[in-house]
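step 4 of 6: structure.
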Amino acid sequence: MHEKYPLVSNPRDPRFHSLLNLKGHGGRSRTGTYLIEGIRHLARAVERNCSILQIIVDTSVLSNVFGQKLVRRLRQTGVPAIRLTPELYRELTMANEPQGVCAELRQQTLAIGDLKPGRDSLWLAVESVDLPGNLGTILRTAEAAGAAGIFLLERSSDPWDPVCVRASMGSLFGLRLVPCTMAEFVSWARKHRVTIVGSSPRGLLNFKALRCRWPAVLLVGSERQGLSPQLMEHSHLTVRIPMHGGCDSVNAAVARGVLLFEMASQREQRGWG
Amino acid sequence: MHEKYPLVSNPRDPRFHSLLNLKGHGGRSRTGTYLIEGIRHLARAVERNCSILQIIVDTSVLSNVFGQKLVRRLRQTGVPAIRLTPELYRELTMANEPQGVCAELRQQTLAIGDLKPGRDSLWLAVESVDLPGNLGTILRTAEAAGAAGIFLLERSSDPWDPVCVRASMGSLFGLRLVPCTMAEFVSWARKHRVTIVGSSPRGLLNFKALRCRWPAVLLVGSERQGLSPQLMEHSHLTVRIPMHGGCDSVNAAVARGVLLFEMASQREQRGWG
């Protein structure tokens, strides 16, 4: 099955080379595309109407019937497909348990100038993230908490890094990503009267005591350094998670989740208060 | 400095061998001890009055003055110390950035029969955890949220695994660890009228709507499988975190953090309600 797709077996084949280039930040920036691997990811990308440029399969691995159907359906809508030999496929994906199907997707972002916040919307702004896997976890948490979108304030955080894509578990496809500078972000928030909530172990408010005007954006810094002093200054409120015992912090992903779900729930309770 | 401590340079030296054995579960079980690495960890272990059996240093790396003082102080209280060559030290710790000081600590646990819950205390019970690093993150989160202790319902979750120890960031030393069987746990909760709160994506209550009698214990399952049906049945209440977007779950560490901090804050607000 799928044997009709052209086979690429030579590691020097230019088609393979352009795919390999997508593993690096530079290659992805040049094409404005990125790679995803696995049936579940592909299914979610289809669900979310992502722009799929091509399918890459390893027919020796793709035994799942649902996965095979998905590829056939995409082929019928005109998406080109190629086959790779198992060796080339493994080199491309580096997945621990490859599922035999990859896709090249167009990077989708929103320009901050085009963005209007919904009346009660919750946003997340990420100043910088040390590890791509952590950015993926942030994306997943943000979608689960009902965030409308994510501002990426530093170009160095690449949401299309394969490690981030994998950790986001498909949430990358459902979120509005807004790359911008700090100045653009601050002036957008001012223009649209969006409350900026900074988070830090030195935040002034216990996060449970936070009551903010909506729309609002939660601002998180890097795992090691936290928020920069500039962004702390631009925050209308700063919150902290009070620590017990000898702890001075919790895992950054845990902290962001705790804050995001608290804000999400405060937003929902607004209607009742 | 520290040159007076006996040097072990032969990889076949029995002192080195017994240390190496502590890297495996079997070796740790036999001795009832475990290893920690790094100045921060050692300082917290001292703070928490952990039982420190010996210090192991690599003097070529231990340049930090505070670390050196800490070792000297422990020596003065009678804790034996040995030096390892850099090669042996690296083999022992496998740390990315070794700080030149290790310690062998006694595993400290509480027998469930001796345990009485404080009136308003919050507990955590872990059924099983797939990855030791995740158990470490749970310990850290639990201490930060003010949990009184942790029930370890499966012997397979070894809190003294080096990866768990590192991820716990020292919280391992401040928490009461209670290894027990499921039956012991359930009968302890019944005897002391402790509310068992199960967590699952299929939990009946939105976690924000939880109002429980105290003391209470939050019960979490493994990252992949969640709670077993038996423990779901023994729960007085089951909670879920509502998901938005296309998400069916969040990262397990994030979910546990969100639930723990919510319960911790409900407990604190009780006084005002």
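step 5 of 6: annotate
 - Residues 203 and 240 of chain A are 5 Å apart (CA to CA).
 - The longest strand of chain A covers residues 52-57.
step 6 of 6: archive
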